[in-house]
Design goal:
single chain, alpha/beta
């Protein structure tokens, strides 16, 4: 049995839930964190404006561990909704960082693969040069910079291609299209790191449950292991549902033009996460099977 075969929550330290505060608690990742740490205090954007320092100060107590899952994630809309994207993804994290530094609280901030240019050929390490090609990516990079400026001891965790299989994420969309269409066409020239939200949530809680270590790099990468194209992921969903994967047809990015360019290659290396002594996240295919198994109409892997 390898590290990638074990339960994503087995043997991992957890923070004191009473000291855990989760922003963006009703989003995809925030809900996963709250499910694994139900005693935590969770706030959504309707409960808290993370750009309002006075409101944040009323919630953050000395000794708290704040996991910031709040984010503006509408990648295409951000191209024209620039101010809103930067408010949530840059100004807000900066406010959280300042308040945490003032109050002696610890901040764990979640960021994204979009801070890289997406033109590489090898998995990105945390210290590789950034160069976002989208407003969304620039706003997230600005958020990282603000966090490190105002709370230099904070942890930043970059991740990628997060899904649960429910709602409107990519895996959920493939489930719906499998029912509705005879065939679908999916791009195969965009490569990344599919990441199951509960696995990432377990990793964040493990990090939160460990004392802050000055020797640990401030920026880490956490995704499920392995890499895939959207085409690969779509075919894996069809296979997991007991459907014929040949119904998923490949195409190129040029067939699906979007307002915001998608990175051709955005795989994140897990070396930094493992080197920090944190449990590696399992392979994305195993995680996908669990994601589908959590859905009532899933027949089980073939």
């Amino acid at each position: 049995m390898t590290a990638h075969d074990v339960s994503p929550t087995a043997g991992r330290p957890r923070p004191d839930s009473a000291r855990l505060l989760v922003t963006g608690a009703r989003g995809q990742l925030g809900r996963a964190v709250m499910t694994l740490a139900p005693g935590a205090r969770g706030v959504a954007h309707t409960d808290l404006d993370i750009t309002a320092a006075d409101a944040v100060r009323k919630l953050v107590n000395p000794g708290d561990v704040l996991i910031n899952c709040a984010a503006y994630t509408a990648v295409d809309r951000a191209e024209t909704d620039v101010d809103a994207a930067f408010a949530v993804n840059a100004t807000g994290p900066g406010v959280l960082a300042r308040v945490c530094a003032e109050n002696g609280a610890r901040l764990i901030h979640v960021s994204t693969d979009y801070v890289f240019p997406g033109t590489g050929a090898h998995p990105y390490e945390p210290d590789d040069p950034t160069g976002p090609a989208t407003v969304y990516g620039r706003s997230k990079l600005a958020g990282e910079q603000a966090v490190l400026e105002f709370a230099p001891d904070a942890d930043i965790v970059r991740t990628a291609w997060v899904y649960t299989g429910a709602g409107v994420d990519f895996v959920a969309t493939m489930r719906r299209l499998e029912r509705e269409r005879d065939t679908i066409t999916v791009v195969r020239d965009q490569i990344g790191s599919p990441t199951y939200a509960p696995d990432l949530a377990a990793g964040l809680l493990e990090l939160a449950g460990r004392p802050g270590n000055p020797a640990t790099p401030r920026i880490l990468h956490a995704t499920n292991a392995g890499q895939a194209s959207w085409f690969d992921l779509a075919r894996a969903v069809f296979t997991g549902l007991g459907a014929d994967p040949e119904r998923v047809l490949p195409c190129g990015t040029e067939n699906f033009p979007r307002p915001a360019p998608r990175p051709a290659y955005s795989v994140l290396s897990g070396n930094s996460w493992a080197a920090a002594g944190l449990s590696p996240l399992r392979h994305w295919k195993q995680a996908l099977n669990d994601a589908l198994a959590a859905i009532s109409d899933y027949p089980g892997p073939p």
